[in-house]
Amino acid sequence: MRPPYLLLDIDGVLIPFPNEAGASPATHTRQEVVPTGRSVDDPVTVWLNPVHGPLLMNIIRSGLVTPVWCSSWRQDATNVVGPLLGLPPLPYIDLPRPQITTSHPNGYLWKRDHVDTWLGDAPAAWIDDDFTTLDHEWADRRTKRGSLTLLVQPACRVGLQVEHLDTIATWAGNYVAGASTA
Q1: Of 119, 115, 109, which Cα lies nearest the Cα of 2?
Q2: How many angstroms separate the Cα of 9 from the Cα of each of 49, 131, 146, 152, 176?
Q3: How crowded is the C-beta side of 101, counted as CA atoms within 13 Å?
Q4: Which residues lie across from 6 on neighbouring strands?
Q5: In this predicted model, what pLDDT tens digit does every residue of 2-39 receive, in sequence order?
Q6: pLDDT tens-place string over residues 71-127
């Protein structure tokens, strides 16, 4: 039995958005990165919490989940952001580059249809800061039809917290225990 997927977003989760004053949380350190297609003369500034790497490694090493990047960073999640946190190369969902002006062009997170197709019937915990009520209803429908789905939504200006990963570990542990007794 394969463990459930852990779908990881980056912006608003590992890289929190600045507050009204333009500041990032004091727990995060400034990094200059060069995503694919950018010149080294034009890096992107990101703010990462060095504690996130070890926290994510703990849940990865537990074997309770199969981690996958689910971010508009695409391959740069594994090639650029992950290494800064000490994470091994992780697979990523190759999301399209939609021409949208909002994260919710249809009232729900733009990634959702792509994720739904990618997951099929596989169980998943998904960490993203940008879910709507329609996304939570989608997760409930998936769960009711037997594809257990947990959405975890950090505050976009705070980002990932220990309790988010504790929630996922408990959920995944219950899933694994239930699957082994079935």
Answers
A1: 119
A2: 15, 11, 24, 11, 23
A3: 0
A4: 67, 125
A5: 899 999 999 999 999 999 998 999 999 999 999 999 99
A6: 999 999 999 999 999 999 999 999 988 787 778 888 889 899 999 999 999 999 999
Q: Which residues of 77-107 are buried (b: 16+ CB within 10 A; e: fewer)?
A: bbebbbebbebeebebbebeeeeeeebeeee
Q: Tell me phi and psi for residue 19, to 5 degrees.
A: -75, -175
Residue 127 forms beta bridges with which residues?
A: 8, 152
Q: Report how far residue 181's alpha carbon sits from residue 37's, in angstroms, rounded to the nearest whole number.
A: 49
pTM score of the predicted model: 0.94
| Residue whose C-alpha is closest to residue 18's, from 8, 30, 9 | 30
For 85-153, the DSSP string reads TTPPP--B--------SSS-TTSS-TTHHHHHHHHTT--EEEE-S---HHHHHHHHHHHHTT--EEEE-
Q: Which structure tokens are listed for 46? A: 């990101």
Confidence of residue 182 (pLDDT cuts 50, 70, 90): low
Q: Which two tokens stand for residue 151?
A: 């959405």
